[in-house]
Amino acid sequence: MSDQTTFQPSSVIFSFDDAVSIVSALGMAVAAINPAVAGGVAAITGIASLLNGTVIPAIKRSHDVQLSVLEQAQLATASAMERIRVGAPASVSN
Amino acid sequence: MKYKILLACLCLQFLFTGCKTQVSVEPGGAYTEASLATADQAILDASKTLDGFLQWELANSAFLARYPEVGKLAVSVTLNRDKWIKDAYAARDAYASALKSYRLGKGQYPTTAKIDAALSLLINITQQIVAYKQLMNNQYNVILSPNAYIFTALSSNTLFFKGQL
To answer: Mutating which of A6, A16, A23, A26 best tests the B interface, going by the most B Cβ atoms within 10 A?
Structure first.
């Protein structure tokens, strides 16, 4: 019984929706770079979402998005910090 | 149940045809290529996921001791996560440089094999993490309340997972 009390669902760092979003973002990255695999990635992401009852949010995410100047700045800053953390060289081109 | 299966089939068909999100960047920002912004976001998200997984595994280590495959993945993530992220940035930068040259009329359109491989690895790990977390929450629910698990499994997965995570 002690195992039950040591499991802490509330300590999970990110929600499941976030996890699906992350898989979607990764899929989108591959799709954006290589349109040839877009269908395959969307299918993989979609299946993962469907199996977990989150297919509707996944479809909603299929709307087109435009990153604002501010969002781009935040992303570039966060990426620069992450590069420093892992010891990667600074970005040469965006 | 019949309707659920039908709905699932319809959704699968829709998904296999591809629900592609088009990302663009507002002119004047830090990025000129949307694909690079998306890649950067994906790498950051993957890094957060890996970090979150390690914290989750640590917080639940007593319960997870009976599932050595989770511990094995955690060890692998601990040892390799910075290298995976660094490799992803290296592949992203190689692609970015080649793309820049191509835009300047120098060279051919860049190949995507390396960045595909780097991002695919991150997708693979992320999917493993998501799968383990679902499995562990299922196991936890079975131990804690078998009736509750059966009820939620038969009713709504969405409610079940949102309730657990």
So the answer is: A26
A84 and A56 within one domain: no
Interface with B, mutate which of A62, A67, A69 (most B CBs under 10 A): A67
Tens digits of residue pLDDT in B59-113: 888 888 888 998 999 999 999 999 999 999 999 999 899 989 998 999 888 877 7
For the beta carbon of residue A46, count every other beta carbon within 10 angstroms: 25
A29 and A58 housed in the same domain: yes
- Distance (Å, rounded) from C-alpha A41 to C-alpha B156? 26
- Look at chain A and report how many structural domains it folds into: 2
Q: What amino acid is encoded at A66 in this protein?
A: Q
The tens digit of pLDDT for each residue in A22-42 reads 555 555 555 555 544 444 344
Are A57 and A69 within one domain?
A: no
Instruction: Judge if A57 and A76 occupy the same domain.
Output: no
Domain span holding position A22: 2-63
Question: Is there a single domain that holds both residue A8 and residue A51?
Answer: yes
Angle, vertex CA B36, rays to CA B30 and CA B40, nearest 5: 85
